[in-house]
Amino acid sequence: MKIVILGGGESGVGAARLAKKKGMEVFLSDKGTIKEEYRKILNEAGIEYEEGQHDETKILGADWIVKSPGIPKKAEIIQKIHQKGIRLSSEIEFASEFTNAKIIAITGSNGKTTTTALIYHILKNDGFNVGLGGNIGKSFAGQVADENFDYYVLEVSSFQLDDIQNFRPYISLLLNLSKDHLDQYNYNYEEYALAKFRIAENQENDNFFIYNKDDEMSMNLLEKLEIKAKMIPFSTKVMLNEGGFVQGENIEIKWADDFSMRIEDLSLVGNHNVANSLAASIAGKILNISNQSIRNSLMTFQAVEHRLEKVATIGGVNFINDSKATNVNACYYALESMKQPTVWIVGGTDKGNDYSEIEDLVKKKVKAIVCLGIDNQKIIDFFKAKKELIYSTSSMEEAVKISKSLAESGDTVLLSPCCASFDLFDNYEDRGRRFKEEVLKPAEQKNIN
Question: Which molecular function terms from Gene Ontology are attached (predicted)?
Fold first, then answer.
């Protein structure tokens, strides 16, 4: 079988190695530049590849094509693949065909990374032979090639779900929906939401689907969709006969033997993380993990990098890295949790953002706005009548320097961009790391003549 991998990043190189191991004829193509670490892996594995171009003759001669989630589905090469009727899959679809491990897959507009890492922590803490992958950590396909895990916990994006055919998780979770990536879905919120629901489309009645009863769009679509899996809800607003909910100061799970835990004992803070903890606990109960083990994991879990990550306190100013907030809804949660006057760093590649969702929070919590992007005009235009202090910057160094000059002891500098990172950075991790580097740079020494 001839297989072509489009994209030479973590997922693409993992898929190429798995295909090679399965005896396929593999060719990897990346229109950009492949990082040296991945080039070395491809060379050592004897995998043919190209970079800086797409050889359409080779690509369109494939039996099966695996696409990086970073390649837009409207790209010309993708259109040509569809026209030729070649099977086009995401890495998660491809890798799932070569493992019998049980998959716990998590999607949603916000909280995916945190909840994925939390479920992995719950399983690992209980002694499960488990891998972590998808949009987080190592390539799922690479792990299927190298490891022999019984379970995989996968963070899954709508872009990966766009390119599935048979992907069928044992447990799927849809945490929430908000307007995100609309530029890739014809600016149609329902089209984007339906892409997320594809996580459950191949599930059968021996599988489980965990969903958010508080989420309006999820509940609207559930009236139209046929989900075959056993459906288990969670809510922070209403009590449930089955599923997870909040009662007073506790989270409660009604599934098998009941589980209860004080909210103040959770390691994660904020109402959105109560919802994430409910969803993760339900997954733990389905897998027959003991109450004591789940409780211990929820108390010991460490928050993930780039998600409301405390970087440092310098001169009484708190610096927080929330680079993973790539949409307005994620930023809403960050601003909501701010307890101090905030200098807010925002901007990047706009995905059809509606800033009115956070307008009241910005008025109440933000003392100054520092825009960080190649084109900051949309943010400036929206907030200029609402905030006196708005600055436009085009580098992390400049953004942090201005933020430090604006913040006083008792303030917080918050990087919560609302936008994708690709105008100035490789990805949100690169953006978050650069923020931390700039924050931790020693203060400039003034020249003394």
Answer: ATP binding; UDP-N-acetylmuramoylalanine-D-glutamate ligase activity
Predicted local confidence at residue 445, as pLDDT: 39
Q: What is the DSSP string of 44-107?
A: HHT-EEEESS--HHHHTT-SEEEE-TTS-TTSHHHHHHHHHT-EEEEHHHHHHTT--SEEEEEE
In the structure, how many helices (H) and strands (E) does the chain have?
A: 17, 20
Residue 79 has pLDDT above 90, yes or no: yes
How far apart are alpha carbons 394 and 376 in whole angstroms?
A: 9
Over the stretch 391-402, which tens digit does the pLDDT of each residue have? 999 999 999 999
Reading the block at residue 421, the tokens are: 């990172």
Show the CA angle centred on residue 247, arms to residues 241 and 252, nearest 5°: 60
Query: Which residues fall in the annotated binding site for ATP?
Result: 108-114
What is the b/e burial string over 3-32, where b = at least 16 CB atoms within 10 angstroms of the residue's CB?
Answer: bbbbbbbbbbbbbbbbbbeeeeebbbbbee
Residue pLDDT, tens place only, 332-360: 989 988 889 999 999 999 888 999 999 99
Q: Residues at the annotated binding site?
A: 108-114
- Minimal CA–CA distance to 407: which of 364, 363, 445, 367? 367
CB count in 10 Å sphere of residue 2:
15
Q: Which structure tokens are listed for 159? A: 């872009």
- Domains belonging to the chain, first-starting first, are 2-85 (3.40.50.720), 93-300 (3.40.1190.10), 309-439 (3.90.190.20)
- Interatomic CA distance for residues 307 and 286, integer angstroms: 27
In this structure, which amino acid lies at residue 48?
E
Task: Output the six-digit token pair for 261.
Answer: 């835990």
- Cα separation, 417 vs 348, in Å, equals 7
Local confidence band at 268 (pLDDT 50, 70, 90 cut-offs): confident
Cα separation, 287 vs 101, whole angstroms: 14
Task: Give dist(CA 305, CA 345) in Å, integer.
Answer: 17
